UniProtKB/TrEMBL annotation:
Protein name: Formyltetrahydrofolate deformylase
BP GO annotations: 'de novo' IMP biosynthetic process; one-carbon metabolic process
EC numbers, comma separated: 3.5.1.10
Record's function text: Catalyzes the hydrolysis of 10-formyltetrahydrofolate (formyl-FH4) to formate and tetrahydrofolate (FH4).
The entry's keywords: Hydrolase, One-carbon metabolism, Purine biosynthesis
PANTHER family: FORMYLTETRAHYDROFOLATE DEFORMYLASE (PTHR42706), FORMYLTETRAHYDROFOLATE DEFORMYLASE 2, MITOCHONDRIAL (PTHR42706:SF1)
Associated pathway: Purine metabolism; IMP biosynthesis via de novo pathway; formate from 10-formyl-5,6,7,8-tetrahydrofolate: step 1/1
Catalytic reactions on record: (6R)-10-formyltetrahydrofolate + H2O = (6S)-5,6,7,8-tetrahydrofolate + formate + H(+)
Active site: residue positions: 238
Species of origin: Geodermatophilus saharensis
EC top class named in words: hydrolase
Family note: Belongs to the PurU family.
Top-level taxon in the UniProt lineage: Bacteria
Amino acid sequence: MSAAPVASAVNTADTGRLVVRCPDRPGIVAVLSRLLADVGANITESQQHSSDPTGGVFTLRLEFVLPGLSARRTQLEGALELLAQQWQLTWRLTEASYRPRVAVFVSRTDHVLQELLYRVRAGDLHADIVAVVSNHPDLEPVAAAAGVPFHHVPVTPETKAQAEARALELVGDVDLVVLARYMQIVSADFCSRFPERLINIHHSFLPAFVGANPYQAAHDRGVKLIGATAHYVTPELDAGPIIEQEVARVDHRATVEDMRRVGRYVERQVLAQAVTWHVEDRVIVEGDRTIVFA
């Protein structure tokens, strides 16, 4: 059950987001609403989910406006800590005015990178792309045109570990890493550096056609729908929790190149949507799945 979203106020310094998880029981929404009311906050959006009302896990996402939020954050966090002890809550509080720092990893194809850069420039993606890292030099002009630092880090089987270490050094302590058609498999150590903060776009409707060259595999199988999947990255290839998916229809006349052409537009939309939801605190990982408060 969820209240209908209202227009976002991400440019307002007084807008906050609260994500809460706890064992489901009566009264959770009431006590959290009372806590926010007591500090003078006005709830503008509320979405919730229970895995099982008779003993599951309750998840709640709230957006609220609190005058002087930054100055009063410590007070609010103290109240949440007390409530957490009583209700076994885990919680995350963010200020909507904060712009997450994002590093984008690419190879040679530019369409998903271009989409992310456009959405940042248009104000549709409230984040800052602070670095583009690639195992090829091809997309340096794209990054340069957007004023984003570009780092060419070649990767071979023999230098993979050193290349990953160099890439991590270059991106530093970013909030999110996006693999935007980065055609390299990242290591388990790389994944562990960004738990639930590493998003990949795979050019198929997972779990179908895992791995390399899925459009060829789809063509060989004669599918009538092709798709794209944005997911969090885990050490198991293309098996992380799925954030967003979409499909497009094809028919027997479609060549592999036709599928790639159609798929590019699907990939752009799916990855950009997943990244937007992530930076707006709308995605909560629950085991191998996600809850997405879209």
